[in-house]
What does this fold into?
Amino acid sequence: MEGRRTINYFQWIRACGAIAIVLLHAFVTLHIAGEGSLSPVRVGIEEALSITLTRWAVPAFFMVSGALMLDPSRTMGWDKILRHVWRLVFVLLTFGLAFALVESISNQHFVVDAQGIIDGFHRLLSEDSWDHMWFVYELIGYYLMTPFIRPWVAQVSREEYGRVLLWMFVVMMGTSAISSFLPYRMYYGVAIPECFCYYLLGYYAMCYLELDRRWLCAGAVSLVAMLVLVIVLDQTWASAPICGIVAPYAIMVFLAFKRYLDIPTEGHPLVALFADYSFGIYLIHPVFQHLMVMVPAIVGAPALLADVALTVVPLALSLVSVWLLRFIPGFRGKI
It folds into this structure.
């Protein structure tokens, strides 16, 4: 089997996806901090931009992870998988715990005591750290499931693979979307997180799918559906990755990277930097965004200035933070 090989368009997805996530959280953080003071027109425009420019990123990140981990041509024994798992556990024990402790202590008016620390550990174990850490928790589970899935992926036909993916999206994400209209969860029979569909889809999309008119049409319909549901009908759940409405759009974007950006990043040093630091950027950037919105002048600034500031500054500071953290023993190779 082959060892490590770089898939060029994956690097572009990582780089652009990291920027997209920072932009998404800039919009979200501003809307929460400025709730009641921002004009509906501004919020609507920013929602449209966030859906169009950013909502593809999380599904694409899961697809990239799945494509790499499930590829039968790559050596992926238990030892290597457990190293990947340990990397994520390490992140939870450092960043996740720190975020959970901050949340716990802030709830106690910044009084540091044993109860606050215990509550912080409880938050970590109960997956109640900062919102963006859900990605790390889910990825640990997907990695642990990988050894049981790889033998099937290695011998399955394209047709069977496609049928399994279709029914997974219908049963898992379809019921999640329908449940959004109901006062209860429609179906609990499948307990696997919905985003596992993207993880399993990644290798299939890498091997078998190409950008064509069908995916362009499906992506356009997906995008319009999200815009209408979220902005016109105020159904904010519709752009969440777990409901699947974003899936055709995310697949279309993934395939666009595959067609147009399957080129080495060596001649694009900034792209290579963002790709290399993408995971660390994802972990760290909310810290700076939360700190920035504590300044009333930033929340009250003109929309363009506030949006750019809450994207560019946390992005730059996250790059510096990752660079510094990699000098600390244990962190190199983890973020």
Observations:
- The mean pLDDT is 93.
- DSSP finds 14 helices and no strands in the chain.
- Residues 78-107 form the longest helix (30 residues).
